[in-house]
Amino acid sequence: xxxxxxxLFPDMVMSGLNDSIIKRGMDNGLLEVGAVNIRDFSAxxxxxxxxxxxxxxxxxxxxxxPVYQALSSVTSESQKKPRVVYVTPQGRPFCQKMAExxxxxEQLVLLCGHYEGIDERVLxxxxxxxxxxxxxxxTGGELASMVIVDAVARLVPGVxxxxxxxxxxxxxxxxxxxxxxxxxEEWHGKRVPEVLLSGNSKKIREWRLTEAEKRTKERxxxxxxxxxxxxxxxxxxxxxxxxxxxxxxxxxxxxATLIYMDETECLLMENQSGTYxxxxxxxxxxxxxxxxxxDKLGPESLDKIILLMEHNEGCVSEIExxxxxxxxxxxxxxxxxxxxKLPIRGLYAEDGxxxxxxxxxxxxxxxxxxxxxxxxxxxxxxxxxxxxxIENDPMYLARFHGAPAGIMGMHVDGSIxxxxxxPAFRRKHIGFALETYLYNKMIENGEIPYGYxxxxxxxxxxxxxxxxxxxxxxxxxxxxx
Length: 481
Ligand code: SAM
Fold this sequence. Notes:
By secondary structure, the chain is of the alpha+beta class. It has helices at about 10-15, 20-25, 65-75, 95-100, 120-125, 140-155, 200-220, 220-235, 245-250, 295, 300-305, 315-325, 370-375, 385-390, 430-445, 460-465; strands at about 1-5, 30-35, 50, 60, 85-95, 105-110, 130, 185, 190, 255-260, 265-270, 275-280, 305-310, 325-335, 360-365, 395-400, 405-410, 415-420, 450-455, 470, 475-480. A hairpin with a 5-residue loop joins strand 17 and strand 18 (about 415-420). Helix 1 runs parallel beside helix 6 (about 140-155), helix 3 (about 65-75) packs parallel to helix 5 (about 120-125) and helix 7 (about 200-220) packs across helix 8 (about 220-235). It is globular. S-adenosylmethionine (SAM) binds near residues 88, 89, 117 and 138.
């Protein structure tokens, strides 16, 4: 990911960012951070970039033209128009969700003001986002830009070595992180909580959740309120648990934003994919049912809905009509709700190593991209998507006596999928091995594997049931713009 900072003090931002994890990301080629000196674009012979404000008042203002020229020099080099963020105390408050949203961009341009700020006209013309790092006034935008670069860069896949660490941190799922301890076991007479030494991962997960809830309630009641609303949504969704497993899991995995909820229905957004999920908790009698959110949300919020998974057939036509979406697929949701791992049944040896069947499982890497695309091309023709999946979530490759034989992984919305067995290796239990391996990894992580099955695909329904999955009898519908 590329960050370009427009500033009057390029050395300040570059020296602040050229260290530790961000530097390593740059050295590895995952990050590119550059600073552009706005002063270089001044036409004034003394390189002035500021002037008095019209209407009087204390202080100087950065002029429009040098800022415009500096921005043009950056955007004219970019193939795609990048987002241009003006850091300002008047912007939207920066938060983890915004960092996650920015991390999906290929390039982010950050514009730093100084003095009293920047001439409004150039901001109107060029800026896409106004972002504040807090309700206080800094002397310039440099520190704010550095804060944003730091928070966004660490979410770029590969920048943090431990992929899960960004996922379990504060603000994930509206909770602050639980307390943590390192060696020694006792320090100043204080012992590390026994449960953390127990090796019982289920108990540790439960303890961490309770502590995170307690801490959030005490320190951030505002966040805790949002968390409680999500828990209430989860309870209501559980009336039809398998059918709603995509929504329940989005909440469980800390990836859901509650967009609208009342006593009958709920609209969530899955944060990583931007997919919306809508349902009425109970099935409705009417043939067509107008979802309440259509009348409760403003056009700005409704316009953002590009991909929606509808769980009530009666709502489909109203949503299609109102939001200009089209129904693409009709599915059943399936989910593996057991908490114990599936038996391996000799499909492969421990840790996915080759067993007597000749099957082994390993993570799919970018060096396998061409193979994966060749195998999965029938249903999928976007190489970028596959690359994104390999970089962002675990995808797996099965081998049969060393030869690549099949793949499986997770879609960006968190559902399992992309299972494809090489025709040369069919009927050798490769699919079962891949599924068992992936599901067990998820169960280990405290996740419930779920996926969608095309409603007429009886073979797949049978296969999932054989593995112990429950298949919802209701339909859900992918609606796409
Ligand atoms: N006159 C401006 C106002 O009242 O909104 C404040 C200007 S401030 C002294 C100079 C620059 O610092 C701003 O243009 C902005 O780029 C940056 N800045 C100051 N406080 C900030 C904050 N809380 N978040 C982001 N940027 C900030």
